[in-house]
Amino acid sequence: MSEMTASDTPVLDLLANMTAESVEASNLDVQAIALVRLAALVASDAPAVSYALNLAIADEVGLDAEDVRGVLAAIAPIVGTSRVAAATSRIVLAIGVGIEQASAQMADDELS
Asked: Hey, where are the domains in the chain?
């Protein structure tokens, strides 16, 4: 399979541009933005892939599992138990997929 170029991923490119523009437009720091985005994902009943993308960014800006748990606890009274439970399972799924991808990459690197 050939490597993907920017032109091969127009939707991802659009999402990246939208994200960059929203960060520039906000007066929040990058950690606060990551936490707010996580809350919005829960509120909008987002799929696991959305959590995977946003948790990767959250990790890059120094947030950890305690921060994620804090957001889930803070928004539970607003969004409800079912949304928080669904989000938690999707976060676990996203983390599991990320671990599988990292393991596969490590195996590929060892073979190279």
From this structure: 29-111
